[in-house]
Amino acid sequence: MSSPSTSMPVEESGFDDHARRIADQGWTVVPDAIEPDLIAAIADDLDRLEHDLDVGPCRNAFEGHNTVRIYNLLLHGENFQRIPVHRAILPIVERVLDRGCLISSLSSIAIDPGETAQPIHADDQLINLDKPHKPLVCNTMWAITDFTEANGATRLVPGTHLGDSNPNPFEHHDTIAAEMTAGSVLVWNGSLWHGGGANTTDTRRVGIAMNYCAGFIRQQENQQLGIPTQTVAAFEPRLQQLVGYDVYHGLIGHIDKKKPTFLLGGEGDHRMVWDV
Fold first, then answer.
1. pTM for the predicted model, two decimal places
2. To the nearest whole percent, how much of the chain has pLDDT over 70?
3. Where on the phi/psi map is residue 191: left (φ > 0), alpha (ψ -120 to 50), or beta?
4. Pairing of strands 67-70, 155-157
5. Span 4-214: which CATH code?
């Protein structure tokens, strides 16, 4: 009989390896994870949305003075709905958090030439808990274009997810650039210190920030109020769960002891933790 390690499918072993790297250093890069046709379709959609929604830079130190961000992307078509449930990335996130994780936010970040580096921060630093703690946030950055040190690749401070503090955004921090080719995905523990890089080139750097949180944490973007129920009703079941139409650990998120999916016209029956 084969040992567990040799009988495990390559995909499962790879997911475990990435999860271990996140546990050890705080981050990992999954190279060439996303299909080229999906990357191209997302790039086209972002160009269209930027024009149709008349989106421009927010012009503050955190979001950037030369950075274009489009939020709440699940409102804007099937290509964006494929992102949270992607089979090459979601299993890694589920290993860092658990299968009850939620979408915290889904947005695009296009860093234009001339942008300066974003302040170094941790994505969970507004959660008022002592550090270090178990992962509560696991975030991903999809490279829609190549990410290089020169064009603003995400800057990382490896190992800081294991520390007992958050960074001072006004101080200098030694960082490394998460360089990767288009179609690759950076995945990191939300406690890891990081920030967008400066773009010193003459071309735009485009990424998708697909962010997840534990099922008992309030989401950064309010998915239940921000996405019409008729839109969510058309989502695949796993995506409905990820935006919050489920019950976490048999207790958190129920409506009169029913799953919120009854609001979408689906079944609401659910075994509560007390029934078990």
1. 0.93
2. 96
3. alpha
4. unpaired
5. 2.60.120.620
